[in-house]
Design brief:
By secondary structure, the chain is α+β, with helices and mostly antiparallel strands. It is built from eleven helices and seven strands. Strands 1, 2, 3, 4, 5, 6 and 7 form a seven-stranded mixed sheet that branches. A hairpin with a 2-residue loop joins strand 4 (30-44) and strand 5 (47-51). Helix 8 packs across helix 11 and helix 9 crosses helix 10. The radius of gyration is 21 Å and the shape is globular. This is Transcriptional regulator. InterPro entries: AraC-bd (IPR003313), Homeodomain-like_sf (IPR009057), HTH-like (IPR037923), HTH_AraC (IPR018060), RmlC-like_jellyroll (IPR014710). Keywords: DNA-binding, Transcription, Transcription regulation.
Length: 296
């Protein structure tokens, strides 16, 4: 699978197409995909989402994705990387620098449910207005358009960060006094969730130079839950996403996320969620059909 690179802090791209943009691929940067007009399917890490006007998707480094166009679609893309955060920090005063650090933390250490990142109508309206303005500046190229584009991109990224941040448990949220090692461990777990050999306590303890006997207590002290519990909950969140947005069978999900077998996944999922994976999928489908019928 091809991996795209970005060699500047950020870039914006405006496209209109009635064909699939490209095969499934990955990035080494963050990408915001805003749907101006049109409809189709966005497949992210094997999970499919129907897109329409006003949807905004966040892709993190190494996410694989593919857009399948159903009706002619206008996209607006904002791409940015670690250089963006560093360049912003270099130009910031003390107060602004603290905000940039918080932004960097949010994008690197929080998780989000795949799909449209905007949860509230107010932010949807605000982002639409900003994207409309970005397109005009991008096309017209009037004096100081680059400076204006820069500020508007910063605002869109900040709105996305807010939508991510409100879903984060309090003990996981950024604090300038937080232990940096704990945040690095969280990022390490998320980055290696498909590599169980790297998630063994001995491996993590060695990687972060913490006693293996103290590791779980250390993690719980700063997050409120044990490291193993965090790993399990993060894996189960991925299981939920597969159940909601893919046709993968339970045994396929178990294999992908390295559960021993299907029965192991069933047992763990029911222990933490109070329902089996199959029951969870059926319940969600039933709820969706009920909502559709109610609005028909």
């Amino acid at each position: 699978m091809n991996t795209e690179n970005l060699h500047q802090p950020f870039e914006i791209v405006y496209k209109e197409t009635d064909e699939c943009l490209k095969p499934a691929h990955k990035h080494n940067f963050f990408e915001l995909v805003y749907i101006i007009d049109g409809s189709g399917t966005h497949c992210i890490n094997k999970n499919r989402f129907e897109y329409r006007n006003g949807h905004l998707f966040l892709l993190t480094p190494q996410d694989s994705h593919k857009l399948t166009v159903k009706t002619t679609t206008k996209f607006f893309l904002i791409r940015f990387n670690d250089i963006y955060f560093k360049s912003q920090n270099e130009q910031a005063n003390t107060q602004e620098s603290e905000w940039i650090k918080k932004l960097e933390f949010i994008f690197h250490n929080t998780t989000h449910s795949p799909g449209c990142i905007l949860k509230g109508m107010n932010d949807r309206v605000l982002v639409k207005a900003l994207i409309d303005g970005l397109i005009k500046e991008h096309i017209n190229k009037e004096p100081y358009h680059q400076e204006i584009i820069h500020q508007m991109v910063n605002t869109v990224i900040s709105i996305v960060a807010r939508n991510l941040y409100i879903k984060v448990p309090n003990k996981m949220k950024y604090d300038s006094n937080n232990d940096a090692t704990t945040l690095k461990i969280i990022h390490y777990v998320q980055a290696n969730i498909y590599k169980p050999e790297l998630l063994k306590a001995e491996q993590i303890a060695n990687n972060f130079q913490i006693s293996v006997n103290y590791l779980s207590e250390y993690f719980k002290k700063h997050t409120g839950e044990t490291l193993q519990n965090y790993i399990t909950n993060y894996k189960l969140k991925l299981v939920e996403t597969r159940l909601l947005h893919s046709d993968m069978r339970i045994n396929e999900i178990a294999f992908e996320l390295h559960f021993t077998d299907e029965s192991h996944l069933n047992r763990i999922f029911k222990k933490y969620k109070g329902i089996s994976p199959t029951g969870f999928r059926k319940q969600v489908l039933f709820d969706r059909k009920t909502m559709v019928a109610a609005t028909a």
